[in-house]
Amino acid sequence: MKKLLLSTFFILTASNFLVAQEVTFEEYDLNNGLHVILHQDNTAPVVTTAVMYHVGSKDEDPQKTGFAHFFEHLLFEGTKNIERGEWDKIVSSNGGSGNANTFLDRTYYYETFPSNSLETGLWLESERLLHPIIGQIGVDTQKEVVQEERRLRVDNSPYGAFFDEILKNLYTKHPYRWGVIGSLDHLASATLDDFKNFNKVYYVPNNAVLVVAGDIDKEKTKKLISDYFGPIPRGADIQRKEIVEDPITTTINAEYRDPNIQIPAILLAYRTPGQAEREAYVINMISTYLSDGESSKLYKKLVDEKKMALQIFSVPIDAEDYSSYIVGALPVGENSIQDLKKEIDEEILKVQSELISEKDYQKLQNKFENRFVNANSSIQGIANSLAENYMLRDDTNLINTEIDIYRSITREEIMEVAKKYLNTNQRLELEYLPEQKEAN
């Protein structure tokens, strides 16, 4: 009885804590189409300014891939009012830090400053939008940077090509079919006008959301935003085609030889609904249950108990049009990747045919509640969540309500979604193998 009372106490305490973490925000549009989201939190003297652009690798010309990621680098080169090499110096001299990242559907830039440097952050991001210099020197410099990044992360990194290989085989029509870094040959052959045109189409206020989060006075911040971003002209509306993949009805078998590895891997990838769909949330729960971390079913079975696998991992890809669930394993000893595939399929079949236990279900709920709290435990995290929920899920308030979706998912729903999407005839089976050595 004492244990029951303690458990009840901790559940109620956690629930109260989560309610107390509600994120308040205000959002509005400027006349040029820029969407603005403000979150005021005066508990610490820091502020994050962030801009997310609705452009990722899926928006590229199939013959000119890598542009979205390239711009993540190029737009730190400088502007009409910021000399080359000065961007990072301005940020650091004001006590700040910043970065950027690109994915399939969006590109995200952000800086975090002491709150008395808010205006500097807004000025920097308005400069990036209004006065970028797309010049040959910057383009040539960043081509070398991207080439080195690809060599480091993909070409010379063990298992570094698996993401690109999965996308290439999982999609045949949709522009998710190439990796985010794209083709170095495409970048090398691109002209300066190609880069200028990409900037003109996608780096416009009506294709972006600005988030300012932290120690701000909202009315003063609105005035600064109006001053810095209001004069930026609206761009042409972007026309995006809806590209629908044919369903996968037979197993896709693929093989890739990696010269950087000695241990093979099996990778099973399933195409799943876009990240805003309810079923995508269910898939995330299944992914966590089966293959995320040392407490997952597959890790405990294949690594801890049977000692068949060196590693089990999952790579859920949340994206706007389609998501993916990827589970991978590395064998140990005399075990083969085919042995591991058989064991993985047994566990997936259990999820499809039996309700997971109430105990496991509660563990899943606890995990997702922890993730929900941790994702929004910093000003930077809040800014990112606000931008992404608005742009890619069309509901900014998911920063407060997303956990309710997970709480509402039932054990029965987990079983039904697993039956619907995680079938052997609906997946890619990628054998990721060491490079064959030539016989003497």
From TrEMBL:
Give the record's keywords alphabetically.
Hydrolase, Metalloprotease, Protease, Signal, Zinc
- Which ranges carry the Peptidase M16 C-terminal domain? 190-367
Does the record's keyword annotation contain Secreted?
Answer: no
> How would you classify this enzyme at the top EC level?
hydrolase
The signal peptide annotation in the UniProt record is 1-20
**Is Zinc given among the entry's keywords?**
yes
The molecular function GO annotations come to: metal ion binding; metallopeptidase activity
User: InterPro entries per the record?
Assistant: Metalloenz_LuxS/M16, Pept_M16_N, Peptidase_M16, Peptidase_M16_C
Q: What is its EC number?
A: 3.4.24.-
Transmembrane parts of this sequence: none
- What does the entry give for GO biological process? proteolysis
Domain Peptidase M16 N-terminal: where? 36-176
Q: Which Pfam families match?
A: Peptidase_M16, Peptidase_M16_C
Where does the source fall among the domains of life? Bacteria
**Record's family?**
Belongs to the peptidase M16 family.
Name of the molecule in the record: Putative zinc protease
